Every structure is written in structure tokens, then in C-alpha cells.
Amino acid sequence: MDFNYSPQDEAFRNDLRTWLEANKRHAPAPRNMMAEESDDDWKDRVGWHKKLNEGGWVAVNWPKEYGGRGATVMQRLIYREELQRLNLNEPFIGMGISLLGPTLMHWGNDEQKRRYLPSILKGEEIWCQGYSEPGAGSDLASLQTRAVADGDDFVVNGQKVWTSMAQHADMIFLLVRTDPAAPKHKGISYLLVDMHSPGVTVRPLVQITGGRGFNEVFFEDVRVPKKNLVGQLNNGWQVAITTLMFERGGGGGEGVMGEVTELAELARRVRRNGGNAWDDPGVRQKIAEFASDAMALKYTGYRQLTRQLKGLPPGPEGSMMKLCNTELALRIALYAMELLGPYSQLEYGADFAIDKGKWSLRMLAARGPTIYAGTNQIQHNIIGERVLGLPKG
Hints:
Elements (H helix, E strand, L loop, with lengths): L6 H17 L15 H16 L18 H13 L10 H12 L2 H13 L4 E4 L15 E5 L2 E8 L10 E7 L10 E7 L5 E6 L8 E12 L3 E2 L5 H13 L5 H16 L1 E2 L2 E2 L4 H29 L7 H24 L17 H8 L10 H12 L6
Parallel strand pairs: 1-4
Antiparallel strand pairs: 2-3, 3-7, 4-5, 5-8, 6-7, 9-10
Helix pairs in contact: 1-3, 4-5, 4-6, 7-8, 7-9, 8-9, 9-10, 9-11
């Protein structure tokens, strides 16, 4: 990979940096994304999305014909770097920008693209993802939510679970079974469903962190126009896989390296054996191990970027990054508990909690990423079977 930026890339950086410097006052204050979010927090996040969109800085990698900037892979990397430089967040207000939009560009018809893509960019419609069910998580193709044709509509009945942001969502892209007699990877269809339709019920699932971002969603005789079918009837599995590729195809280890840096700062402040924990060579060695792993992840992510630059399809790096990133974050969180000792028992926001208790919150939250977006056990299977050529277990 060529690490030098082209003149076009530097011009992109300068334009973005100038805009961010002039508008950063509109960005919401940094907050712990794993903690419970207030209504005002959510409004601030949507407001920042809309402000970025006014400047043309939302979905920069979308093609220009769909409202993006047509940014290259390298420019997308620059976009993340410049936000991180100012400690700003790329506002995450649902699955529209990252998942549904790119999927519609590939599978949607012209009417669907005209109807949904502009509202996604403007932040006027919030999208959630209706994949997992109580009996169909890692084995997603076992889903049982049914859609039965009835005139110009489908009638949907069933339940989804672990539905992030459903409490805010206006729309959901939904996997349903439309042919129960077909093999389980067949007979599935991909529908776009209005969350305000009669028969849709959202119930929050309170997590161990206290957050309410996950939800159960129930569908009872929900009518969905047939024009909301994406791709072909009973061929939704292909569309769903496209969406999953976008979900797992993200960046490198920059975020984890930030946690390593914070852990090193913590070690310099925590007392141990009459000094600071950082004075212990064993502590420094452990943190150096985390730093080495984070750097390896960063450069593995660059390998993935290199494939994109060459126009190649996603490789095994997506599963490797998901697996190693989440397990490293978990190891860091658990080691922070060791450093904190008795202070690790103080919850987020508690009196006398070190760093306001953010480390205990991270520890509680760290198991989640090893489960969602394809459990780490599934990623082990993918790497073993498709990369190493091992026999199926």
C-alpha cells in the first residue's frame, strides 16, 4: 500500500479541515457511547448529522449521483483521521448510511433509490436492522418471521431481537420468510417496513450497562406494500449478505489504540506497592503487548484498504478484524479492572470512581461486540473454513 497522499487527497483534507474548524462548535460534547443516552443526547447527535450534511460531509464515500462526494478509499481514511484529530464523532444515527444505503445502491430499483437515499442523507428517516430473532442469531437463516402475500401487500408476523436504535427508527430493513417450504437459505425476502405501521411494537431491552439501545420488535399483521421488496422474491439471502459485508468491512485498529493510550495513562495514576502501577515492568510489558496487537490490527486494516483500492472483493480481513478487535478490547477492559483493584467495583458515575467509572462500564459492555455482527465463534469458523481450508466441525 502506498502511504503517500495524492494532491487530490490533500485538497480533500484541507477542505474538510477548514469546514470542521469553522463548524466544530455545533458538534455534541464527547460522551461515553456505552452509557444510557438521554433524549437531548440523541437530538444533538441528529443535529450534528444534519449539520455535516449541509456541508456535504455525510456519506462522503457514496457516489456523487446519490448525494455523496465520491470519496476514494484513502479520502474516507482521511475523513476519519480529521474527525479524530478534533475529538469529534462521526454521528451514528442508525443503519441507513453504512448499511441500507449501499445495499440499495446495489439491489434497489430506481424508485426505491429516489425514495429512500435522500432522506437517509438528510437524517429525516432513521433506519434499524431487522435480522436476529430469539431462535435465529448466529444461524440467521433459521429466521421464522413470516410475510404472506395478500393483494398488493405482504402481511408480516413475527419477532426480531437485539434491534439497535429501534426506539428511534422510522424504518426497518427486514428479513422475512416468504416460502416456508424452501431450504432455509432460500425462501427469504428483504423488505423495507415503516416502523409506524399498525401492528409494530418496540420493547426496550435494558443492558447490563443500563443502556437501552437494544430492543425487541414485534410484528402483528403488519401490512407492507410489495413495492418495498428489495431484490427478487425468495432471494433475499443474497441481499442480506451484501448488507453483512458492509457491516463487517470497517476500519482498522485506531480506536483500540486509543484505549491502549488511556490504559497507559491510568497505570501512571493508579497506586501500587508504594508507587505507580506504571513503575512495575510487568504492567508496562502487558500494555506494550496490547499496543503491539493494536498496531498489528491497524496494518491488517490497511491490507483490507489495499484490496478495496485494487477493486478486489472483501477478503478474510473483515472477519479477522472483527474477531481480533473485539477480543483485544475485552482483554484491555479486563486488565483495567486488575489495575483498579477495589475501585473496579464502583459503577459508572459513582462517587470516588476513577475516571468517573468509565472502565467498569467498558468492561460490562465489552462482551457485546464479541456477540453481535456475527459471534466470534462464527468468525473462527469463517476463518478456519474459508481461509485455512479446515474441514467443517
